[in-house]
Specification:
Pfam families: HTH_18 (PF12833). The chain has two domains: 5-182, Jelly Rolls (Sandwich), CATH 2.60.120.280; 186-297, Arc Repressor Mutant, subunit A, CATH 1.10.10. Helices cover 48% and strands 14% of the residues. It has helices at residues 10-16, 109-113, 132-149, 157-182, 184-202, 206-210, 215-221, 226-237, 241-257, 264-271, 276-287, 291-297, and strands at residues 5-7, 26-30, 40-44, 47-52, 58-61, 64-65, 72-76, 81-85, 95-100, 128-129. Strands 1-3-8-5-6 form a five-stranded mixed sheet. Helix 3 runs antiparallel to helix 4 and helix 9 runs antiparallel to helix 10 (264-271).
Length: 298
């Protein structure tokens, strides 16, 4: 990763892509104006959205390729290092992009709710594939932002620009909901794998050795980002990934409690709880009875 290009200001990114800086904290990028590019690594101190319009190379995050083809949107959050691979040839990039600095969001409604747009931290195989109608909506959102940027800055500019960015992000949330539904077969396979992962985990020595499985660990085992994985589980089960894991813990714990030869302390250790009292509190919170009361009832 030598010679990493650093983009910590909008003006620097505009300069790299031959764009004029119309507003210091946000820009709509027309990549057809950029110079032909070859392989490079880039550090972003900005929020960045890229709409790819032609097949012209791969974008990488770490060792993984983005699921990134013509007509897809990908999102980068500040602090990410992104690699661009052109397979040894120079290519003229095409498509549109939106970049904005975190400072733009201070004191705004969007700034308080950026965490709701979890797709900014999605990773490999998680890009948004747009229909033609959806692509038209994205381009319209970009056009509205650009229209405001091209006018003289006044006291209303920031609120209007941020409102249009928020509108765009809300559309993206809707489009991702559609994609989760259309990829139901793939996602169902992921849920089956998730269930098997938990079964295998609790059949092993892992709980007593390292504790309860974390959401981030499960996501990594399934080659997904934590946020994408969490959103997928929520969309298809109605439970958060953490709630799903907790329900599995209760299911396994109940089966162990039926085995009267095991003490509750032994069961707590096998389930990954450091202290029996922690297991008792957790079980009562979710079942309404302590483990001992549940054993006596059954």
């Amino acid at each position: 990763m030598e010679n990493i290009l650093r983009f910590e200001t909008v003006s620097r990114y505009n300069e790299y892509n031959n764009q004029k800086t119309l507003y210091p904290l946000v820009s709509v990028i027309d990549y057809s104006k950029a110079d032909p590019s070859n392989d490079s690594w880039m550090f972003f101190g900005l929020y960045s959205v890229v709409l790819k319009d032609v097949d012209c190379g791969d974008i990488r995050y770490g060792k993984l390729n983005y699921d990134y083809q013509k007509g897809t949107l990908v999102f980068f959050t500040p602090g990410q290092i992104i690699g661009y691979e052109s397979h040894g040839e120079y290519h003229q990039p095409k498509g549109m992009g939106l970049v904005f600095h975190p400072d733009l969001l201070h004191g705004t409604h969007l700034g308080k709710h950026m965490k709701d747009y979890s797709f900014f931290t999605y990773q490999s195989n998680e890009a948004l594939h747009l229909s033609e109608d959806e692509k038209g909506i994205v381009m319209d959102c970009f056009s509205k932002i650009k229209f405001e940027l091209e006018h003289a800055i006044d006291k209303h500019s920031k609120n209007i620009i941020v409102s249009n960015i928020e509108l765009f992000l809300n559309h993206v949330n809707r489009f991702y909901d559609r994609q989760f539904i259309l990829r139901e077969r793939v996602n169902s396979g992921i849920l089956v794998s998730f269930e098997k992962l938990l079964d295998d985990y609790f059949d092993s020595e892992n709980p007593s050795a390292i504790g309860l499985p974390a959401v981030c660990w499960c996501a990594s085992q399934l080659n997904l980002s934590s946020n994408y994985f969490g959103d997928l589980v929520k969309k298809h089960t109605g439970k958060s990934a953490q709630e799903y894991i907790q329900s599995k813990v209760i299911e396994v714990a109940k089966s162990k409690i039926y085995d009267s030869e095991k003490s509750l302390s032994q069961i707590a250790n096998e389930m990954g709880f450091r202290y029996p009292s922690s297991f008792t509190r957790f079980f009562k919170q979710h079942v309404g009875f302590t483990p001992n009361e549940f054993r006596n009832l059954n």
